[in-house]
Design goal:
It is built from four helices and 23 strands. The chain is mainly beta. The protein folds into four domains: 3-87; 89-173, Baseplate protein-like domains (Phage tail protein beta-alpha-beta fold, 3-Layer(bab) Sandwich); 190-206 and 276-336, Bacteriophage T4, Gp27, baseplate hub, domain 3 (Elongation Factor Tu (Ef-tu), domain 3, Beta Barrel), CATH 2.40.30.150; 213-274. The chain starts with a strand and ends in a 13-residue tail after the last strand.
């Protein structure tokens, strides 16, 4: 592992070779995060200024230092760095003023990045040819949030990928491969007890935020407000939510039917925030049976089997945590989608 540091302008400033630990968390639909622990030295203090970039040779992402803690006491001498992948640069921009789109989701994501106030050195990568479509309207929304929602709606991953030789950052869209046991095209990847690659297993399902009937409110006031309904469940299965979409304006040339369709698309966009969550987390070695980044990677669909639970499910790898400690690398993948939002049970008396 070679940890390299760069200025915000992507100029190389030095290596760190005395780190104690590094946790490098990659995420499919949104920017990942990192945490690095190192001793306090003058070189390390110079390397770790806020805004500087951290990169491991061979990685397809870099991270920006957003938080630095320096702790010194009788039993501790440490610099602790935290931050997000440089994909978080998109969180510094807004979709402005109003964007109305009807077409390919991948094209929408690229257009939003291209039309935003320029992010230095960012260029668009190649089109991947994904055929998923979307219709939406956005006004002064956070660019990163919109990209995340669009990616989730079409199972498209995205990142800002740096090239420190050319000083160019490329906006990349991608989709993982289906490597589950139920398909017969690609090599299958299975995490199970019998393969000895499923340690510290944790399974969680949660429906506390689940909604299946949406009322989406657009323009107008009172009884004149345009409201459309998405979903028609009944009885105890019915879970309602109101979506305020007043920001979606009925522009000239758009028919009433088309405007209602735009509101329905807003409901479809919000569905990801109100789904039943099913998540599996585990620890595994980087090269036990299936090799990380060779046989499987972030975004791939794999099979997870837990015989003692009678469980066999195909899930997408939506997060991978790389942990480097004492010269050993451990991988902790997350399968499925974590909760988009949750109730803080400590607030309920």
């Amino acid at each position: 592992m070679e940890i390299r540091f760069y200025t915000p302008e992507m100029m190389f400033i030095g290596l760190m070779e005395n780190q104690r630990s590094l946790t490098w968390t990659r995420r499919y639909y949104e920017p990942g995060v990192f945490e690095l622990h190192a001793p306090i030295t003058q070189d390390n203090l110079n390397l770790t200024q806020l805004g500087n970039l951290v990169w491991m040779r061979g990685a397809n992402e870099a991270a920006v230092i957003e938080d630095r803690t320096i702790e010194e006491r009788w039993d501790l001498n440490s610099i602790i760095l935290r931050g997000r992948m440089i994909s978080s640069y998109t969180g510094r921009r807004l979709v402005r003023p109003t964007v109305t789109f009807n077409g390919l989701t991948e094209v929408a994501m690229r257009q939003l990045v291209s039309d935003a106030y320029p992010i230095p050195r960012v260029e668009l990568g190649d089109m991947q040819g994904f055929t998923d479509t979307v219709r939406f309207q956005a006004t002064y929304k956070n660019l990163q949030d919109v990209l995340t929602k669009l990616g989730r709606s079409a199972n498209i991953g995205w990142r800002l990928q740096p090239d420190f030789d050319t000083k160019v950052i490329t906006f990349v869209t991608y989709r993982g491969s289906d490597r589950s046991a139920s398909q017969g095209v690609a090599n299958r990847v299975i995490f199970s007890e019998s393969y000895n690659n499923l340690e510290n297993f944790s399974y969680r399902e949660n429906d506390q935020v689940y909604k299946n009937v949406m009322y989406i409110g657009g323009e107008g006031e009172g009884s004149d407000r345009v409201i459309v309904q998405r979903g028609d469940a009944t009885g105890l299965d019915r879970r309602e939510v109101f979506i305020d979409a007043r920001d979606l304006t009925h522009e000239a040339g758009v028919s009433d039917a088309e405007y209602r369709e735009i509101l329905m698309e807003r409901g479809a966009e919000k569905e990801g925030d109100y789904q039943i969550s099913e998540t599996i987390e585990c620890d595994t070695g980087a090269d036990i049976n299936f090799h990380y980044k060779v046989h499987y990677d972030l975004g791939d669909i794999v099979t997870v089997k837990k015989r003692s639970f009678g469980m066999a499910v195909d899930l997408r790898i939506t997060e991978i945590k790389e942990i480097y400690e004492r010269g050993v690398m451990k991988v902790s993948p997350v399968f499925g989608s974590p909760l988009a939002q949750t109730i803080d049970w400590s607030d309920i008396q």
